[in-house]
From TrEMBL:
It comes from the Bacteria. Residues 701-982 form the DUF7825 domain. It comes from Dawidia soli. Residues 2-319 form the DUF6493 domain. This is Uncharacterized protein. Residues 420-691 form the DUF7824 domain. SUPFAM superfamilies: ARM repeat (SSF48371).
Length: 983
């Protein structure tokens, strides 16, 4: 009866009758209504898709605004907190016009807790203001937490006019005396958005640049209402409370806005010293600036500063380091009795590879250090390796000459190459179950190869009695295809999960009784998929079969992994035990050639041909070790074309020997052997007509400033208009087969279906119709999405020749000097991570990718690129002059600023080893040859580093083109003296 009466009020929107109805309910009536609200809430509040007469779709609630308020008000009175928040998850009761009338006679016991818990979310309801909260407090409804009050305070001095313009009303802080006496101090204890109060508001009655809160606090300080000393203290202490950078900067601004006097600064020394430990450089600089004012005072806390100098002088912010050295210089003059402790502190500055910093520190030591102070000499000795040559020259009298860095000391040179790290073999069902349970989470880029291989190799151990062990793996596979994408998930994870789901269907078909538990999982997810499809017109079924699986962009690179999964599926379906030929045996996707021979022997014994695409991948993954042993074994057990193919692939001196019944395998072997070499024996293959860039990745490129037009909204004309703009770009000229967005032509459709069928070409098919793997490499999507989570797995398909993939990554993700999107940055980072463990064969695109990453806008990307350079120099197979040439061309084309490069050298590459210093000198010299006649911004720092390298290597400039370029730069007054010392 209660529910029916309420339903009538709701249906007829009789808000005026609701309050009397709710007040009449006893405890049992409230309980009955609470139970009846759930179906009403579902009917009225759930969003459903509706279609208009012209076919447009939208999502709407059945409820009108009045009905929403009625439902929420009823739930407010009748439900407990948990039930209420299921109905009103966004705290609509705060602006429900019915709630104030209810609160006068009923306030739920959870009311205060719900409001206080608003602070647990990142935002507060825009219409819940400090005044509202204080009115609730006055009436006894709310016991506010300090954090809630702190979050509400920034709104106090602003009111919203009818025209949505903010009005500054400073006097609002006076309405409740407790606001200025107690609540105002809470903004220093909790993170708020007070620093944004002026940024995003439009004021109709004041100038835009007025700092409203700063003015307000200063005003009431001047009146004596706010304690000035405490305000200064709290503004400093707030910078060390782990607030975000912008908010911390606002408190620094407040401190400076109050203009503390000398005496006030002296009394604030303990707070200034605490501020030196702030994680934000703006706060540290403010504290140092305050100390500069009082450093000459007899009351200055010298020991407090010295205790913090190790951290200050190791700061990455140059202004912090130089300001600290300036303070130490003043202390050295003022306190001769403490010079030993101060000069020891100065030594910490030599941690920086910055000539200006080191020279300043060296001059201080030269002037104030007494050589008899052994503690200072010992401290200098600790930094001898990091000292630049100019500083060493200044301090020669205090230093013991250190041995030069030997060329053969190469950090990481003894590290075992990735291709020599063997993967553990799976031999038991339990190992297979464990692998299947984690294979869809992208924990290891090789799981997509290892799982299908293990399923084939261990298929005899998968019996009906063991099927229940795969329930968690099947649940995980369905969760992968049905749920939203996680940050680490790629399209290949979706593909692998689809494959595994199809495999379990085979098991259920073979063992229907024992597979009943797996069937229940299939049925449950299929039902959920069908319900979603019936509910939402935009929803596409997410449970697909393996054969029709494809990515929306049509990228054919995904067909390579799909090929292996279809091969595995067919083997399981037909009970074939021959192993997958291309399954990696070692890290990064490498396959031991001896194992390949052993696998081929199993195919020969069964009189079965290996799949052509599987064989191609095995060739692309062949490792550099065990080749002699593999050839010996192949000659013993194999014959015919297969033996000839392996002879050619594994023997550097061997030439191709016809007949060529499988030309795609021979051509792949030629690429694996030497991508740049052309074999006359292959001239009649259709693949010989392909652009060499398909398998080398080498294409024309240039970096330059591009003029383009951007659309901007003209508020006066009330329309978008084109506006000229410039951007720094790197443009690669891709061949048509590599270009993103290429449409599949009619003649290509057979090629896709042929891959789907995955059969070795029949007798009636011309052998050339089988495409080589490199023809599948493409990134066609207009915008990258999840490809960055797949790129390592693409690279590990061809670990000895990833250059064609690097070409596409460079073209798509490094086109602009600053990353276009976070996805582009992830794409480059993941690619670099994959390359670090590979033994690379360098060509133009390899150098282009590494060099471009070395001047990237992202520090992590630059660091990865530096690691690749260090590794390449250590292995003595990277040509640093090529890196220097490309970086020089980038800087000439204004693709990147010089500072990115000089910062990388200082932080990552200087003094790695003697060999690296010499390689770095070559890089610098070549780079100068390609820089423009007008020195780029930051050239002085660059030449300082170059001079340091020449001094370290005890060499001189010998390049004539570089010398001419330096002479052209000598017309710059700031560079003239430095250049004269170089040439």
């Amino acid at each position: 009866m209660v529910v029916e009466e309420f339903a009538t009020i709701l249906r007829k929107e009789r808000s005026s009758d609701l309050i009397s109805f709710l007040r009449s309910l006893d405890k049992q009536g409230k309980k009955e209504l609470a139970a009846g609200l759930k179906p009403l809430q579902k009917e009225y509040l759930e969003y459903r898709q509706v279609s208009s007469l012209i076919g447009h779709s939208s999502f709407k609630q059945k409820a009108s605004p009045a009905q929403v308020n009625i439902l929420h008000a009823a739930a407010f009175v009748c439900c407990n907190r948990k039930e209420y928040q299921k109905i009103d998850g966004f705290s609509h009761f705060l602006n429900n016009p019915l709630v104030p009338d209810i609160l006068s006679w009923y306030c739920p016991d959870w009311f205060s807790d719900v409001i206080n818990d608003l602070t647990k979310q990142n935002w507060l309801p825009w219409n819940f203001r400090y005044n509202t909260a204080m009115e609730f407090v006055d009436k006894g409804y709310l016991q506010p937490t300090d954090e809630l009050l702190a979050r509400l305070i920034p709104q106090i001095i602003f009111e919203l006019d009818k025209d949505h313009k903010q009005r500054f009303v400073r006097e609002n802080v006076e309405r409740w005396p407790i606001t200025l006496s107690h609540h105002i101090w809470l903004i220093f204890q909790f993170e708020t958005d007070i620093h944004l109060s002026d940024r995003y508001s439009h004021f109709g009655d004041s100038k835009k640049d007025v700092k409203h809160w700063l003015e307000t606090l200063k005003h009431y300080t001047a009146l004596g209402v706010i304690d000035r000393e405490r305000l200064l203290q709290e503004s400093l202490l707030a910078t060390g409370r782990n607030f975000n950078k912008t908010l911390s900067g606002w408190f620094v601004e407040l401190f400076e806005f109050l203009e503390p006097t000398v005496q006030e600064l002296i009394s604030l020394q303990s707070q200034l010293i605490i501020t030196l430990s702030s994680q934000h450089s703006k706060a540290v600089n403010a504290a140092l600036n305050g100390m500069k004012v009082i450093v000459e005072s007899p009351e200055f806390n010298v020991s407090g500063l010295l205790e913090n100098t190790p951290v200050l002088l190791s700061s990455e912010t140059k202004s912090v380091v130089t300001a600290t050295l300036t303070l130490l210089e003043k202390l050295l003059r003022k306190h001769p009795d403490q010079r030993e402790a101060i000069t020891v502190s100065v030594c910490h500055a030599f941690i920086h590879n910055d000539e200006n910093i080191q020279n300043k520190a060296a001059k201080l030591l030269l002037k104030y250090h007494d050589a008899s102070r052994q503690s200072v000499n010992d401290e200098l000795g600790r930094y001898a390796d990091s000292m630049l040559m100019s500083a060493k020259k200044t301090l020669a009298a205090f230093l013991i000459e250190a041995a030069p860095i030997p060329d053969d000391i190469v950090p990481g040179a003894a590290t075992q190459p990735a291709e020599a790290v063997a993967l553990p073999a799976l031999s038991s069902l339990d190992e297979l179950v464990f692998l299947a349970s984690q294979a869809f989470d992208n924990n290891d880029p090789l799981h997509i190869d290892l799982l299908p291989a293990a399923l084939v190799n261990l298929q005899d151990q998968v019996t009906g009695a063991e099927l229940h062990k795969f329930e968690p793996a099947l649940q995980r596979a369905y969760a992968t295809v049905m749920n939203d994408w996680t940050s680490t998930m790629g399209y290949l994870d979706h593909l692998l999960a689809t494959f595994f789901i199809d495999v379990t269907r085979l098991w259920i078909e073979w063992f229907p009784a024992e597979g009943a538990s797996l069937q229940k999982i299939h049925d449950a997810f299929k039902k959920k998929d069908e319900e979603n499809k019936a509910k939402w017109s935009w929803y596409k079924s997410r449970i697909l079969a393996l054969l029709p699986w494809r990515v929306e962009s049509g990228d054919t690179i995904y067909l390579i992994h799909k090929a292996i999964l279809v091969v595995a599926y067919e083997k399981l379906k037909k009970g074939r035990r021959q192993p997958i030929l291309s399954t990696p045996t070692h890290a990064c996707g490498y396959v031991d050639p001896l194992i390949v021979v052993q696998r081929l022997l199993q195919y020969r014994a069964a009189d079965v041909l290996p799949d052509g695409h599987d064989f191609q991948i095995a060739i692309a993954r062949i490792a550099s070790f065990h080749r002699d042993e593999a050839l010996t074994e192949a000659r013993r057990v194999l014959t015919g074309e297969t033996l000839n193919l392996l002879e050619f692939l594994l023997n550097d001196a061997a030439r191709p020997i016809p007949p060529f019944h499988t030309p795609y395998l021979w051509f792949m072997a030629g690429i694996a052997k030497s991508p740049r070499q052309h074999y006359p024996e292959f001239k009649d293959f259709s693949y010989a007509q392909l652009p060499s860039s398909v398998y080398t990745g080498e294409v024309p490129w240039r970096s330059f400033v591009e003029n383009y037009k951007v659309k901007k909204y003209d508020y006066g004309k009330k329309r978008y208009e084109d506006e000229p703009a410039e951007r720094n770009v790197l443009r690669l000229t891709l061949d048509p087969v590599q270009s993103p967005g290429v449409t599949v032509t009619a003649e290509d459709k057979g090629f896709f279906s042929k891959l789907t069928r995955l059969v070795t070409p029949g007798k009636k098919d011309p052998p050339e119709e089988t495409r080589i793997l490199y023809q599948f490499i493409s990134f066609k999507a207009k915008y990258l999405s999840a490809e960055h989570n797949d790129v390592q797995r693409f690279i590990y398909l061809m670990p000895s020749n990833p250059n064609p993939i690097l070409t596409l990554v460079t073209a798509r993700a490094l086109e602009y000097s600053k990353f276009w999107s976070e996805t582009d940055k992830k794409m480059v980072t993941k690619t670099l991570e994959a390359l670090v463990d590979l033994t690379l064969v360098y060509n133009e695109v390899t150098y282009l990718f590494i060099a471009t990453c070395m001047v990237s806008s992202d520090k992590t990307v630059r660091s990865f690129a530096a690691e690749l350079w260090i590794k390449g120099v250590a292995a003595r197979d990277l040509d640093s002059t090529q890196i220097g040439r490309i970086i020089g061309m980038h800087l000439s084309g204004e693709y990147a600023p010089m500072k990115r490069f000089t910062d990388l050298i200082s932080e990552n590459l200087l003094k790695v080893s003697g060999a690296h210093n010499k390689a770095l000198e070559l890089l610098f010299t070549t780079m100068i040859e390609y820089l423009p006649d007008e020195p780029p911004v930051g050239t002085k720092r660059y030449l300082d580093l170059y001079a340091e390298l020449l001094a370290l290597n005890k060499s001189t400039l010998t390049s004539e083109p570089a010398g001419k370029r330096l002479k052209a730069w000598s017309s710059s007054a700031s560079l003239k003296k430095l250049i004269s010392s170089l040439v």
